[in-house]
Amino acid sequence: MPAALVTRGALAGAAALLAGCVGVAQDGGFAAVADAARARTGAEAKLVRTEADERAVADTVRALLAQPLGREDAVRIALLNHPGLQASYWDAGIAQADLAQAARLQNPGFGFKRSAGGGSVEIERSLTVNLVQALTLPLSRRLEQARFDQAILSVGAAIERHAFETRRAWAEAVAARQGLDYARRVNAAAEASAELTGRMTRSGNASALDSAREQLFHAEAAAGVMRAEQALIASRERLARLLGLWGEQTAFTLPERLPDLPATPLESGATERLALERRADVQAARQQAASTAANLGLTRTTRFVNVFELGLERKSETGEPRARGYEVSLELPLFDWGGARSARAEALYMQSLRRVAETAVNARSEARERYLAYRGGWDLARHYRDEVLPLRKKISAEVLLRYNGMLASPFELLLDAREQAGAVHAAIEALKEFWIQEAALQLALGGPAPQAATNEHKEHAP
Asked: Phi and psi (nearest 5°) for 320?
């Protein structure tokens, strides 16, 4: 083959490949992550790149913290402001850069040799191009594309997990505040009852045993306030960490109580289907299988020839005409026929298929489990709201009526107050668990469940 023809062919091939190169996007491919996060969490994720972006995020956080922090506002702050989550966003940029690199032809190699002796000078020049890399470039690009898609799904899964943790921490913090408020009310009532019993004991209308019991109840109520204060501090700090807040930002305010129960629970009919369609781990497992299949194709393509280089040479020597030619370097498969590489790639592919099946089975099971927990939490919270608390109110009203009619002693009235406090505390815990399970169901389904009902806050606790 004439050297000029080889040169033109190599340059034309290189030009064609360079024309199809994938550029590096300014956002590092994060737009796809942001779209997926918006669909699955309902919140906007943004990659902070410049000082202007940082100022915009700071302004948004300041505006959201200027009012009592709602659950979805907390998720919005977390996705914008948490430094660890922001660090994971750059995984998409790394994968996108690898994809762009995989679409580029390797730089050619240039060699220069000069030797002198006996009054003559010999100069050799060479230019080599890796043809195997050029021929397998489309396969390599498909492989990196699959890895990029996996990176997008992995970042999306991290966003979903962080949103769930934020929702759970928010529910725990608001429940802790609500519990502390009620613990203080119980403590104030216990203090008043202990003082009343003390006066009755001094006047001979109550025994020392009755007085000691009321003092013990007051002491336990004060301990309950201290425990509630510690629980609120711990839950607020955990929420602050998930939001990426520090300094004066940690003085945010929370709503006085948890949202009320939805009017009706979600139906379970489509939970498994939604989990398989939307969950990031299921999609990532599928992408992994596709990537492994692409890798298997690449391995089979280069099984026998994995080093194939074409080189152009030009030689000049003093007193002699210039010589031109080309050199082909080819690895001979005498010892390694590539069978082990192909067998390994095929084993990895079969393994990835089993991983896909395992992920699908786990996704179905988790969807069922989370829905049952969600529905059980809804039933329990409704039971306290519609059955237990109304009965406690009715009993308290009857005891108070009997006390006013001098048919019940003060100690019966105080005992009823203790039992009512226990019922209210259990109702708060049941409502908190429901909202945690509701967030867990969203995570298991890869996004909000359809026909989710949200109600305005309503008071039911006494």
From this structure: -120, 150
At 362, the pLDDT band (50, 70, 90 cuts) reads confident
Give the C-alpha separation, 257 to 179, whole Å.
9
- State the average pLDDT for the chain: 78
The three-point CA angle 203-207-211 to 5° equals: 90
Q: What pLDDT is recorded for position 205?
A: 78
Number of structural domains (the chain) is: 1
Of 151-155, 252-256, 423-427, the least confident: 151-155
Write out the H or E segment, with its range, that includes residue 166: helix 137-202
* Domain housing 433: 259-303+344-462
CA distance 156 to 41: 10
Assign 327 to helix, strand or coil: strand
Residue 192: CA count within 13 A, CB half-sphere: 9
For the ranges 80-84, 181-185, 231-235, 329-333, the lowest mean pLDDT is seen at: 329-333
Which is more confidently placed, 311 or 160? 160
CA–CA separation, 128 and 134 (whole Å): 12
Pair 254, 69: CB distance under 8 Å: yes
The CATH number of the domain holding residue 266 is 1.20.1600.10
Contacts of 418 (CB under 8 A, 6+ apart): 217
Among 147, 35, 142, residue whose Cα is nearest residue 94: 147
Q: Which neighbouring-strand residues pair with 308?
A: 330
Structural domain includes residue 388: yes
Q: How far is CA 437 from the centre of its chain?
A: 17
CA-nearest of 234, 235, 238, 240 to 77 is 240
Q: CA-CA distance, 108 to 135, in Å (whole number)?
A: 15
Q: What does the chain come to in residues?
A: 462
What is the Cα–Cα distance from 321 to 312, expressed in whole angstroms?
17
Residues forming a β-bridge with 122: 115, 317
| Closest to 164 in 3D by CA, of 445, 377, 369 | 445
